[in-house]
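Quick note —
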Amino acid sequence: MSLMIRRADQSDAPAIAELQQLTWREAYAGLLPTPLLDGLALPRLYRTWRAELIRQDGDLDLGIFIAETEDGKALGYATCGAATLQSQDLLGDGEIHQLYVRASHQGRGLGRALMLACSRWLLMRGLFSGGLWVVKGNERARAFYESIGGELIGDRRDSMQGWQIPVVGYGWEDLHELAGLESEVPSWL
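Predicted structure written out below.
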């Protein structure tokens, strides 16, 4: 099976909305409040992603990437851009805002390939350091970020629809380290 990663466009809003609903429920069952996960309604997610993909057209730092099969089945997505003001001091110039892969396709190199796409995008935009926030109890994701050189750099609480969620930050002082993952990305991409 041939897979590819490409920059998403506005037509990908429905696929990314479905991916977010699925991957969040897979990743966060037992970690996030059930009402938060039950509230992931596809019409609202679709509107959110449509707006983000439109915003990407005007925000040159924003990169939204989708991993899919050759027949167009979406398997994962990632977003990145300039670090938010609340994250800049800790994470550096750039930030990976989201990275999710279907549970059925984890461990096959898609996460690494999406991180490679994000790191290259950030470097191309002149953002040379960066990081991300991950739900504190998400041990699988934390192990993944540590395996690709992420250093634990802090913690905080994020507000998600009124819920306070503990998160931890992972950072890379030089995003060239992530861009060097290319040798570890499967050849099928």
